[in-house]
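$ fold --in a.seq
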Amino acid sequence: MLKLVGLGLGSPEYFTRAALRELEDSDVVYLDTYTGFLDERAVSELRSLLGERLVLAGRRDLEEGSRRLVELAEKEEVSVAVPGDPLIATTHSSLLVEAARRGVSWRVVHGVSVLSAAVSRSGLSAYRFGRTVTVPRRAGAEEYEGIYRTIASNVELGLHTLVLLDTAEGGLTAHEALRSLLEVEASMGSEVLSRSTLITLTRIGLEGEAVVCGDADRVMWSSLPPPPHVLIVPGKLHFAEREFLERVLGCEAPRSRETVSPTAARARSYIEKAREVIGKLEVVVEGGETRRLLELAESYVNDAETFLRSGRSEDALVAVSYAEGIFDALRLLGLVRFEWPRGRGGSFSPREPSR
């Protein structure tokens, strides 16, 4: 039999009786050392309980060696001990798929996951979270941009974001992850993180647990205990959530600050450029159709400004793009003459090189 056994939040205090019973009844226990975090006390207790039956397993053992592990489970009681809850990581779900394919019986013992513990500890409603993101230890600029865009998309929808930080190689700190995300934000001209109340959760369920809540500057200048760390970026706050942040976490949550998302910043940049073109554009061939199309383009710019003021940034982006299309068509036909402005928020424009 193959058993996936959840060990909880990384300390022996979170070992359940069900988990310990299953491990004791196993012929061999592979301890997952790479998808989650266990403190030294937890590893020491498992060694005392299991002796030579405990095998420290890395990524290669659990992924590349999955077939051999399942083959062993055909003949013996094999447990994979996992920090957190076993089926959160695809590594472990693929083990069950392999077992089912080979007709090997299996069992899952669930444990407390940081996904639920971090959300619970923050005091934010679990029903108001959007897509969760994970920041790898060696994430590059492109990965950070994708992570940032997911956070921004959640915030635009009024949703909170759980940002899990890698636990490998000593763990990624909130300082390191936030610094890289703020660099992405600056390059985009956005203000999602710099205008948000951020929640940093460190060592949840472990000795030295701490929660820091405040703006980006406060988090960056706070002294934090060693990883594991988790970040939460709140979206729109319900009054009960705001009260929890203020009274329980001691956090001053902003009440009426405008958050500029990447989509809004992009729309604003396009609108500014379109307005500048309207002011400088030269009509080469006079005619009723040319004037009518210019008026139509300007009306789209007006609509875009209205949408942006009302918080409909995606609609604003669509409207101003229609205006840009009309301007470009008239220029290609030789009916008007103008140049697109350069160096003003152009980092978003997919056609920027042609301007």
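$ fold --in b.seq
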Amino acid sequence: MKAEDLIIASVDDHIVEPPHLWDAHLSAQHKHLAPKMLRDESGADFWVFEGRRAAQGGLNAVVGRPPEEYGMEPISLDEMRKGVWDIDARIDDMNVNGILASINFPSILTFDGGLFLGFENKENAKILLSAYNDWHIDEWCAKYPGRNIPNAIVPYWDIDATVAEIERVAKKGCHAISFCDNPSVKGLQSIHDEYWNPLWKVCADNEVAINIHIGSGAQAPHASMKSPIDAWITTMPISIVNSAADWLHLSALQQYPLKIALSEGGIGWIPYFLERADFTNAHHSAWTHAKTNFGNKKPSEVFREHFLTCFIEDKFGLANLEAIGEDFVAYECDYPHSDTQWPYVPEHLFETVKHLTDSQIDKVTHLNAMKFYNFDAFGMMGGRENCTVKALRAKAAHVSTEPMTQSGAAPLKAGEQPRRVTSGDIVAMFASVNAKDQERVDA
């Protein structure tokens, strides 16, 4: 197998919401609820939700920029590749990158749609949330069948509305939702509370996978404000481990065939995590009584029955695939964030998987993802031969991959001598954005 023979499905990418998102998906009586994107005197785009300003959501949407110009805040859509927010351009960027299919998370709405949790009027929030799902399913995903896997958000502050929304989107062909990895940190019930029982049942009944993205609830901590930001970036994917352990002990896993994806969480840590989970269960369950969560199985067995893990570049994890399980690993591109290897994913990916058998390569590059999400990309694309890196790149001869020049915010001030960027620098940038987001705006 060569790099051009790969078939690649990414289980973690992102959309920056476009200005027209709400135009076609609100009824006449609800048009007045549509959030608006405006531009301020500094050239920054921002949204207005419930009369409050919110940054347009492109934080870290730096795809296509030279690495030395990476920052945390392209401030307008003009400063991003068009594929970040436009579906036609996104397909071009997928083709030139050899990506067959992708699952996408929101940006301004937050990865799990948590922006709506902060709405004063929760009924309006539900209306806008459903409109987002309709746009995502009927426009973003439906325009190019076989290319984007629908991924809905849910009004998880209202369990009855959540069940109804999952049933509604499932009828539209959407069998994945994005969900908070730890709703208790947002003031909601723990996943172990019976409040969520209807959620587990409706997901099982409709074969809906649950994506829990890093940072959707629990946050990777900064060691200190003087710590190099590299330390935080290093640990960010692994921060999913606490939530992974929590979900592994979910008693509903014994009752339902739930599918849970640890989105953007990496895989190299999985072997020790499973070893530790098995040891803990064997060594401590006499007093913790945790065996009731696992029946006659080991935690590692339960994990492999229910969870999907993913990697961007994880040579150690792929070298120890047997300890993880070759049926539970998938690839992620993370377009348009700074970890993405666009437009050279096939070349990088092939170097990390070339030691595997062809069968294993197919599993971790696309088959596991397509099975997990019940997504028949081959059928929608007219056959496997149309899905390879070579076939897709043949459609992308017109796509420019020339680096863009950044004119947005950067961590260091203009004229400042080069130095290590710290957690404090990045936290200050976010604080500045958050302060503006508290402003009331007449729109």
